[in-house]
Design a protein that fits this description.
By secondary structure, the chain is α/β, with parallel strands linked by helices. It has two domains: 152 residues, 3-Layer(bba) Sandwich (FAD/NAD(P)-binding domain); 200 residues, FAD/NAD(P)-binding domain (3-Layer(bba) Sandwich). It is built from eleven helices and 28 strands. The strands form nine sheets. It has a six-stranded mixed sheet with strand order 5-2-1-9-22-21. Strands 11-18-12-13-14 form a five-stranded parallel sheet. A hairpin with a 2-residue loop joins β15 and β16. α1 runs parallel beside α10. The termini are far apart. The mean pLDDT is 97. Bound molecules: flavin-adenine dinucleotide and nicotinamide-adenine-dinucleotide (NAD). Flavin-adenine dinucleotide binds next to α1, β2, α7 and α10. Keywords: FAD, Flavoprotein, Oxidoreductase. Its EC number is 1.6.5.-. This is NAD(P)/FAD-dependent oxidoreductase. GO terms for molecular function: oxidoreductase activity.
Length: 402
């Protein structure tokens, strides 16, 4: 009997989980041997991580055990870290073993972009994983807890700097404006002792986004005590300060780095032709160098033909790519040669400002305030629905809408 083809999915993020969930519902799991590899035994929703980072949500709400959603009788699951892909040998080197593939799906997500700025790696926090955000939350709590124990008060203890006012930075700052009053109350600290500073290199927050909505967002956040420093690139991070372009310093024990992302380092380590760790994929989402490797999510780069610039990496695109990839894997396993072309269908962008506020563009419509916040929660719940149906929405969803 002919051996079944081996499909290996690397990464159980938005892209990898949807590919696995689609395949387990199809005939592919009978006709092929499907394996999912992830460094944790749980999946987390990266798009929610600003909330546990600020402490406005428990990190367990953002994650679920992989075998609660994926049927491990149909799909093998390996909990391990991917080290390198040996494309010539069709093998993946994991920390603890080596596995073979016939078809590979590369969906390992991204890491924070540091642009080589000195001190970021050593001294800044990042909003990247359950482990990284749990650490931010604990660190912030500790700053508040230690302040009243200090004989001599240090301003840096209660100064929180967020580098980059892109969507991640803005969403985190928004959550912090909710959390800070609670922490002040809990640790007997007057609100005016606390500084929350959003530092952005570009001439505006959320560069490229609708100007009216950006102004709305900044007004909301400023009214809740956020200080914006716009047009202000950070050039160095030190243990207890950040250094700005004009050499001035902000004293702080807490800098959260949100200046964009680059593709997972496994991409460069494996020698792919890539730009900032992202592989410019073919129309059917394969690596141009290897027709047995699909690349999805933040590791993939696709060009928006209207603007001739890369689409920003988003969960929205990762999920859509996962659907196309699952269909294409099915076609290949069935021996078909014609594969589906990927066409992104961008529904819009909605960003939370904390509390019951958000801003967004849906289709051509601008939305803001509480109604935008409800839409944002519906988007978050929709993903859970796609992954695990109504039971998962009820178990893990954002059910308090208003
Ligand atoms: P991910 O979902 O990040 O998953 C990667 C997976 O790979 C993880 O499970 C990780 O543990 C695993 N992994 C990584 N390295 C290894 C390794 N070496 N070995 C094994 N496993 C590994 N996008 C939107 O569309 N809408 C939003 O509202 C939105 N909000 C966001 C909010 C925040 C705070 C952030 C940080 C991002 C947000 N994004 C949003 C962007 C979105 O999260 C990413 O584009 C999306 O997660 C990419 O999906 P992915 O499958 O490529 O990677
Ligand atoms: P981003 O690229 O969107 O924003 C990074 C910001 O950091 C930019 O405004 C940039 O000018 C600034 N910056 C860069 N270097 C700097 C420096 N040295 N000093 C100060 N500022 C600096 O990246 P992100 O916010 O990390 O988001 C990553 C991806 O995730 C994006 O594609 C984004 O669209 C997506 N995302 C989407 C949502 C949403 O849809 N609600 C939320 C979060 C993230």
């Amino acid at each position: 009997m002919k051996n079944k083809p081996k499909i290996v999915i690397l990464g159980a993020g938005y892209g990898g989980m949807i590919v696995a969930a689609r395949l387990q519902k199809s005939t592919v799991v009978k006709d092929a041997e499907v394996t999912l590899v992830n460094k944790h035994n749980y999946h987390y929703q990266t798009t929610w991580l600003h909330e546990p980072a600020a402490g406005t949500m428990h990190h367990d709400q953002t994650r679920m055990k992989i075998d609660d959603v994926i049927d491990t009788k149909k799909i093998n699951f390996i909990k391990d870290s991917v080290v390198e892909i040996k494309r010539d040998e069709k093998k993946v080197v994991l920390k603890d073993s080596v596995i073979d593939y016939d078809y590979l799906v590369l969906g390992l997500g991204s890491i924070p972009e540091t642009f080589g700025i000195p001190g970021v790696q050593e001294h800044a926090f990042s909003i990247r994983s359950v482990n990284s955000v749990r650490l931010i939350k604990e660190h912030i709590d500790y700053q508040f807890a230690s302040y009243n124990k200090q004989d001599e008060k240090f301003d840096e203890t209660l100064t929180f700097v967020v580098a980059g006012a892109g969507f991640t930075g803005i969403e985190f700052v928004g959550e912090m404006t909710d959390r800070i009053p609670e922490l002040c109350e809990e640790y007997d600290i007057p609100r005016e002792k606390v500084r929350l500073i959003s530092v952005e290199a570009a001439p505006t927050a959320l560069p490229g986004f609708d100007e009216e909505l950006v102004e709305y967002a900044m007004n909301v956040l400023e009214s809740r005590g956020v200080e914006f420093m716009i047009n202000t690139p950070i050039k160095e991070v030190r243990e207890n300060s950040v250094v700005l372009n004009d050499d001035s310093e902000i004293k702080t024990n807490t800098i959260v780095w949100t200046t964009g992302v680059r593709g997972n380092p496994v991409v460069d380590k494996s020698g792919f032709d890539a730009m900032r760790g992202r592989i410019k994929v073919t129309d059917d989402l394969r690596s141009p160098e290897n027709d047995d490797i699909f690349v999805i999510g933040d590791c993939a780069l696709i060009i928006n033909e209207e603007t001739e610039r890369p689409y920003p990496p988003t969960a929205q695109i990762a999920i859509q790519q996962a659907y196309t990839t699952a269909n294409n894997l099915k076609a290949l396993v069935e021996g078909k040669k014609e594969l589906e072309t990927f066409k992104p269908d961008i529904k819009g962008t909605v960003a939370s400002l904390g509390g019951k506020e958000a801003i967004g563009v849906v289709g051509k419509r601008k939305i803001y305030g509480n109604s935008a916040s409800v839409v944002k929660k519906m988007i978050d719940n929709r993903y859970l629905f796609l992954l695990g149906g109504m039971p998962l929405v009820i178990k893990k969803g954002k059910l308090k809408m208003f």
